[in-house]
Design brief:
alpha/beta, flat, single chain, D-Maltodextrin-Binding Protein, domain 2, 26 helices
Length: 698
């Protein structure tokens, strides 16, 4: 009996184990764990959710199909770890959820997917605004005006509002009461999307429309504020006490389609952020970094939302939209992914003991700690190991001096130099420039690579037609043009008056009547200036002829001045912002990497650059037009320009400020002389040239 019981228990255990293995399979080697992604009930946020999903998959994660949740449900579940994140957090609107007990300490916001782009407010059609002189929602207190927006014939303006379960529904009712509009305005609730489609149809039929909306949203991509619509200002910020938002936060500037500037919309302008479980982010630094970097332009979200509402609305369509956007922004996306992977590599290396990559040349040889930093093509991280010109060179050197080594990475050159200078590591190798300042705190090997600094700028990429249009626009909007035109007209008027005064009583060709006479004088002055010289009018008095003689000669200079003004304006448009060399950097925004040789050089030249922790962040700043130029090591810039940056950036001027890369060592390192001898040997026997050709060609 005992044997039978034991067999039964063993059988039950075996079945249970099999079930666990089936439903909880262990992940494959190198495969990252799964991420549970959520999304808002507002489908205007589904496009950006799908973008983030696909980016996380490119990082190597398995990501669930996004589950739709309302706000409170999501915040409760993410705090309990039942879901991991979403990218539909609106702040300050969602601050109320973060302040709830059980949520505040377990949930974190990260990044700014859309910074300051989430606006809310009331809009009416522009024609009605101009016809009825409506500027403020308070104007709807007038029953005559309110009736213009009445669709159900009850005498009140129909304000197309929110679905009943949305936060904005109660807020709109609250504001209607606070603004004293209960007798003339009512909120129309129901299916927002269907109501808005009907509203747009009413607009197309010439009817007056009044509705609430937000950005990003397809509605204001279909009907554009300033062109088709007008934002209605409110008399003051009317927000419930629990909103805990200041009135100042509801006022913003430069709102297209708002008649006031600054514009009081009555709602705070929100940042759209990712929201995630705090522990989830701590355990996945690459995900956190990716969410910090990801930015999606508001106009892109509006455009793809419009396509969704035009019929491309299946899950597959949204996936295609996201994939299309990623490919259209591939250069920027690749930089985000690289920085995210770097963050993961660094944290992994810090947690491991020993560091990530261990190479053994001899069982009896000492083991050195080697720190590096990704610096293409000198150091790259591929297939969970470091590769590149500097790595291959170090491998040969380590074998030559008979040492083992364990190599790990850091995120910045400043961190790398700090590790070496304080003896936390034995060797630092990447693309480290030898400078007098650095020699004060550490030692260097002989140089192993000669390079210099170079300037990189973004490509203009404008067509000929766009260039001509831009030049014409610059001329027409130039202050210099109108300044020159004003002087030109004043001189013409002065000469015309002089001729008329001298000729009016002696010459019938210049009538004594002022309006008729001055017009004929202006005609004569103009044709004489342009050398057309019809000869239909000529001065006859001595003084008039003297003025005419003066004008014939002076006219050349006046006309030349006017022509030069236009030419100069055109030339300024062509040259403005153009960077041709080092001499142009003092008038533009320059970026470089913190603690780099480029930063040191620029500051010596009294050019103070905007500093970034990594070269990838500097590239992103150039793409986003936060800086006008990058100054950095020529080799790295050339590699980027020929690969990921091809077509979008260009190098200007030749290489300047020659510099040399060396291996960084702690002061008085016993390996300095050994490495120098080994380096010379590799250069003499052809090993160095072989490595060089592998990475840089002939």
């Amino acid at each position: 009996m005992k044997i039978i019981k034991i067999l039964k228990l063993a059988l039950i255990s075996l079945v249970t184990l099999s079930i666990l293995l089936i439903f909880n399979p262990s992940p494959a080697t190198g495969q990252k764990d799964a991420i549970d992604l959520s999304r808002s009930t507002r489908d205007t946020g589904w496009f950006q959710t799908e973008i983030v999903k696909q980016l996380l998959e490119e990082l190597g994660y398995q990501v669930s199909a996004p589950q739709t949740k309302d706000n409170l449900d999501f915040y409760n579940q993410v705090a309990k770890g039942k879901t991991d994140l979403w990218v539909n957090g609106w702040f300050p609107n969602h601050n109320r959820f973060l302040e709830l007990e059980g949520i505040s300490k377990k949930v974190a916001t990260v990044g700014n997917l859309v910074q300051g782009g989430a606006k809310q407010g009331y809009l009416i059609d522009r024609k009605s605004a101009e016809r009825l002189n409506i500027k403020n929602i308070e104007d709807l207190k007038d029953p005559t005006i309110a009736k213009e927006f009445d669709r159900n014939n009850n005498g009140k303006a129909d304000l197309i509002g929110c679905n009943k379960d949305w936060l904005c529904a109660d807020l709109i009712d609250y504001q209607i009461e606070k603004y004293g509009l209960k007798d003339t305005v009512e909120q129309i609730q129901g299916n927002y999307n269907e109501n808005i489609k009907e509203t747009i149809s009413d607009y197309n039929r010439g009817k007056s429309i009044l509705f609430y909306t937000w950005t990003p949203n397809w509605t204001i991509y279909t009907l554009k504020p300033g062109q088709d619509l007008v934002w209605l200002e409110v008399p003051f910020a009317a927000l419930p006490k629990q909103e805990n938002i200041s009135e100042k936060a509801t006022v913003t500037t430069k709102i297209e389609g708002c008649q006031g500037d600054p514009c009081q919309l009555g709602f705070p302008v929100n940042d759209i952020k990712a929201v995630a479980n705090g522990k989830f982010l701590d355990d996945r630094p690459d995900v956190k970094k990716l969410l910090e970097l990801t930015k999606i332009p508001l106009e892109d979200i509006n455009k793809y939302n419009a396509r969704m509402y035009a019929g491309e609305d299946s899950e597959q369509d949204i996936q295609i939209h996201a994939k299309e956007w990623i490919e259209n922004n591939r250069e920027r996306v690749n930089l985000w992914l690289k920085l995210a992977r770097d963050q993961q590599i660094t944290q992994t290396n810090q947690q491991k003991n020993p560091p990530s990559q261990i190479i053994t040349n001899s069982q009896t040889a000492p083991t050195l700690k080697v720190v590096t930093k990704r610096f293409e093509p000198f150091v790259m991280y591929q297939d969970d190991r470091y590769v590149g010109f500097s790595i291959d060179l170090w491998k040969e050197l380590a074998e030559e001096i008979n040492v083992n080594y364990e190599i790990y990475g850091v995120n910045s050159i400043a961190k790398l130099l700090d590790e070496v200078s304080r003896n936390a590591t034995d060797v630092g190798i990447a693309g480290i420039t030898i400078t007098a300042e650095r020699e004060k705190s550490l030692d260097f090997s002989h140089p192993f690579y000669e390079t210099g600094l170079q300037i990189m700028v973004a490509n203009n990429n404008r067509s000929m037609l766009e260039t001509i249009a831009s030049s014409i626009k610059s001329i027409l909007t130039s202050k210099e043009l109108y300044y020159g035109l004003g002087i030109f007209i004043l001189i013409l008027a002065a000469v015309a008056h002089a001729v008329w005064l001298f000729e009016r009583d002696r010459n019938p060709e210049f009538p004594p009547n002022y309006l008729e006479g001055i017009w004929d004088s202006l005609w004569w002055v103009a044709v004489t200036l342009t050398t057309v010289g019809y000869g239909d009018k000529t001065p006859k008095s001595h003084k008039g002829r003297l003025v005419g003689l003066f004008w014939m000669f002076a006219g050349y200079f006046v006309f030349a001045y006017f022509t030069a003004t236009i030419t100069t304006t055109f030339a300024i448009d062509q040259l403005e912002g153009r960077i041709n060399g080092l001499q142009d950097l003092d008038r533009v925004k320059v970026g470089t990497v913190t603690a780099s040789a480029a930063q040191e050089f620029l500051e010596q030249e009294n050019i103070y650059p905007i500093q970034y922790d990594s070269l990838e962040e500097t590239y992103l700043a150039l793409q986003d037009r936060k800086i006008d130029a990058i100054v950095y090591d020529a080799g790295a810039l050339q590699y980027y320009a020929l690969n990921e940056g091809r077509g979008s950036v260009q190098l200007v001027d030749s290489i300047f400020k020659k510099q040399y890369y060396g291996i960084a060592l702690p002061s008085n390192s016993p390996y300095r002389n050994k490495l120098n001898v080994a380096l010379l040997k590799l250069q003499e026997d052809g090993s160095y040239d072989k490595i060089y050709r592998k990475w840089f060609g002939k």
